[in-house]
Amino acid sequence: MIPIDTTEYHQFYHLPRFAQRRIQVQDVHDYILTKCIGEQWKVEKAGCSLQERPIYQIRYGHGPTKILLWSQMHGNEATATRAILELFQFLNSPTASKNWAKQLSIYFLPLLNPDGAAAHIRENAAWIDLNRDALALSAPESLILHKAIHHLQPDFCFNLHDQQIYYGIGNPCKQAAISLLAPLTNPLGTMSPSRQKAAKMVVLMEKWLRSEYHLPVGKWADEYEKRAFGEYCQAVGSSTILVEAGGLPRDWEKVKLTQYYFSLLLFSIQAIIDQDYEKETLVEYEAIPLNRLGVFDLIIRNVERKIGNSTGKVDIGIRREDCPIADGKSIVQMGKIIEIGDLSHATGIEEWDAAGADIASPKIYPETFPSVPPVDRAIEIMNQGYGAIQVKNISNFPDYVHFPLLIEESMQNPVVSRFATGATANFCLVKKDKMAANVINGYLHLINFK
User: Fold this and answer.
1) Edge-to-edge strands of the sheet including 54-60?
2) Digits of tens for pLDDT over the chain (450 positions)?
3) Cis before 154 (ω within 30)
4) Within 10 Å of residue 127's Cβ, how many Cβ atoms?
5) What gap in Å lies between CA 230 and CA 239, rounded to an integer?
6) Is the dihedral of CA 425, 429, 434, 438 positive or negative?
7) What is the rounded CA–CA span in Å between residue 163 and residue 242?
8) 88 and 33 Cβ atoms separated by less than 8 Å
9) Smallest Cα–Cα separation from 168: which of 346, 288, 342?
10) For residues 298, 337, 339 and 297, what is the CA-based torsion angle, rounded to 10 degrees?
């Protein structure tokens, strides 16, 4: 593979218009129809989604080795779609090897679930998980993928996804940037010829990600799911590789991770041409560490809690859920308390040692505001020991999620914070009767003592 450094990537291949995780379906389609043109390209409408959005199949090249890549069968998993669009940029550039078009026929089904993408949900418009529909074929999107698999009979398939950013490897758990898998052929775990090739490719990809980018790479749980398309493809003889984009610290929109994903696709396609995977071993595949849930957005350590008649120390693990906004473009994240107890095995993307602090409900500032005050004023109020304010009108406030105070519109009822697993993470941390920190919507705001 031709090495691509960060400068070249940002100058020629990175697409700022797709820099957010909630990409716009029409923008993707417009890009495909305007960029995938010329003698090496063929774009055809493979069908429509349940809500009549088009789904395109794109072919690059006309060589004998066939590769099929599909992305965003889960509508809220856009990293691979973004990486594929950057791959299109590369294939149209002078840097691209002209031999690819002679040696390969690369087929793409990007944005397989456009209805889910528009709503920023995992399932399609009928709430069907397309990756559990390989046998029933109850969704039109599933039928499109099924037809492509049987019509093309690809040598290699790439099933491209995003996993939760909370999966990691090791103990304590370290966030997995990317996870890989050669899906099972059957419940017995037989190493069929197609799966052997896929497993060796996974080894090669994992080694390259570690050596080139020093990324922590995991292996997705190796459990047989006969309804899934990965298992289905493997069983019909196409060597199939699952790729899951995980997370990197403070890369919430997965911009940096998209660069690694793009580079990995380039590397993998060249490795198929060169058959570099043949030298890898199945023993090395089995040695890749398995993913597990052990990462939190925020861990607050050593909180003192009264447990029965004694006082003990606990950790609080918080994760933030995507909440799509009605504008169709934005996402906010709301934090929930996921676990309380010993989290020594886990890692927080952000951590704070609260030694000596206990949990308390936010204290309400006595003044009622006509609208939400500026953030600077809110920080002043918080530094005085208050964790909540009441306002008469919050309807036009754009960013309540990151606001350092709990906002209450009602003046009738006092603020009640429920501290329990599953509850929204709104609480204060108090040391020696003084507020030390405010946690609002799962975000930590520390008090600045003067």
Assistant:
1) 41-48, 54-60, 104-109, 65-71, 156-162, 239-245, 178-181, 217-219
2) 566 889 999 999 999 999 999 999 999 999 999 999 999 999 999 999 999 999 999 999 999 999 999 999 999 999 999 999 999 999 999 888 888 999 999 999 999 999 999 999 999 999 999 999 999 999 999 999 999 999 999 999 999 999 999 999 988 899 999 999 999 999 998 999 999 999 999 999 999 999 999 999 999 988 899 999 999 999 999 999 999 999 999 899 999 999 999 999 999 999 999 999 999 999 999 999 999 999 999 999 999 987 777 888 999 999 999 988 888 888 888 999 999 999 999 999 999 999 989 999 889 999 999 888 999 999 999 999 999 999 887 776 667 778 999 988 765 555 556 789 999 999 999 998 899 999 999 999 999 754
3) no
4) 9
5) 9
6) negative
7) 11
8) no
9) 346
10) -20
Which of 30, 246, 209 lies closest to 15 in space, CA to CA? 30
Angle between helices 25-35 and 79-91 (to 10 degrees): 20
Kindly report the length of the chain: 450
Buried b (16+ CB within 10 A) or exposed e, 399-413: eeeebbbbbbeeeee
Tokens representing 200 are 């060796």
* Burial of residue 1, with CB atoms counted within 10 A of its CB: 0-12 exposed, 13-18 middle, 19 or more buried: middle
Q: What gap in Å lies between CA 299 and CA 350, rounded to an integer?
A: 7
Q: What is the DSSP string of 181-241?
A: E---SSTT----HHHHHHHHHHHHHHHHHHHHH---EEE------TTSHHHHHHHTT-EEE
Q: What is the DSSP letter of 401?
A: T
Amino acid symbol at 223: E
Which residue type sits at 165? I
Rg of the chain, C-alpha, whole Å: 25
Looking at this protein, which amino acid is placed at residue 204? L
Amino acid at the residue 433:
D
Q: At 396, is the secondary structure helix, strand, or coil?
A: coil
Gap between the Cα atoms of 36 and 29, Å rounded: 10
3-state secondary structure (DSSP) of residue 413: coil
Dihedral pair phi/psi, residue 310, rounded to 5°: -125, 170
Structure tokens at 362: 């936010």
- The pTM (predicted TM-score) of the whole model is 0.92
Structure-block tokens of residue 216: 């922590």
Write out the two tokens for 366. 């006595």
Work out the burial of residue 51: count CB atoms within 10 Å of its CB; fewer than 13 is exposed, 13-18 middle, 19 or more buried: middle
Could you identify the residue written with the tokens 């709990």? 406
Which residue, chain included where needed, has tokens 């493979």? 46
